[in-house]
Write a structure and sequence with these properties.
By secondary structure, this protein is mostly beta strands. The protein is 0% helix and 69% strand. It has a single domain, classed as Immunoglobulin-like, CATH 2.60.40. The strands form two sheets. Strands 4, 5, 6, 8 and 9 form a five-stranded antiparallel beta sheet that branches. It has a four-stranded antiparallel beta sheet with strand order 1-2-3-7, with no helix packed on it. β1 and β2 form a beta hairpin. The two termini are 20 Å apart. The model has no long low-confidence stretch (mean pLDDT 94).
């Protein structure tokens, strides 16, 4: 698991390899990840949007941008945690992801960026 704290918001990421499959004579590797976002600040915040950078070992970068996470824009009071699961497909057995959330602080109406730590995606059978 990897963690990072930005302005009192802790983002923890746990990953797992789901398996591989063939489609149109190409191999794809499926990865899942679970993210927990904990508000350790003094103010109530809301997650507005996300921006992901996905990299594979074949140098095929992808950027994913959108509102909320898994169709939600969670509001987190002090001490609350929002956890969700998602996944991605790569064309190589190794890769990584990193990104950030845009959040708003309800006390100040300030929008701010919360970093998502870089994490590796590894197909278990390819590791020594």
């Amino acid at each position: 698991m990897v963690e990072q704290i930005t302005k009192g918001i802790r983002v923890s990421v746990d990953t797992h390899f789901e398996g591989s499959f063939m489609k149109n004579n190409e191999t794809y590797y499926a990865y899942g990840y679970q993210i927990s976002i904990t508000n350790n600040s003094r103010d109530t915040v809301q997650l507005l949007s996300r921006s992901w950078f996905i990299f594979d070992a074949l140098n095929n970068p992808e950027r994913v941008v959108g509102e909320g996470v898994i169709g939600k824009k969670p509001v987190l009071k002090t001490g609350e945690t929002h956890t969700y699961s998602s996944g991605c497909l790569l064309k190589s057995p190794f890769g990584s992801m990193r990104g950030y959330y845009i959040m708003i602080n309800f006390a100040t109406s300030e929008q701010f960026k919360v970093e998502i730590p870089s994490f590796n995606l590894n197909a278990i059978h390819t590791l020594n």
